[in-house]
Amino acid sequence: MNLMAIFVGGGIGSMMRYGLSYFFWSYNWGGISWATLMANALASLLLGMFVTLSLRNYWSNEWTGLFIVGLCGGFSTFSTFSLEVFNLLHSGHFISAAINILISVIVCLFCIYFGMKSI
Predict the structure, then answer these.
(1) Distance between CA atoms of 33 and 84, rounded to whole angstroms?
(2) Do 70 and 9 contact (CB within 8 A), yes or no?
(3) CA 9, 15, 19, 21 torsion: positive or negative?
(4) Alpha-carbon distance 55 to 38, whole Å?
């Protein structure tokens, strides 16, 4: 049952990521993909909330698989973020790459913290 929950959560998370990409497709300022940043930030916020709920034993392993592994894993776009940073570095846009890394990491760390404190 846990594998099915992960599968369903991953599908939902992937659809959420696609929706953000569709909505933000034209927003790409300074080499930063806002869709990727928003997906990573929201996934971090949700992950912080879901981990806190799981640690407090508010739900079963199936719910943990659905939300933490599946939904957040399918929704977060770290591999896309890594490719975008690599492409910036490869094309010589070192400042844009550094700004992208700093903003993404700081925002996502804040979102994890805020997600954990909001529960």
Answers:
(1) 8
(2) yes
(3) positive
(4) 25
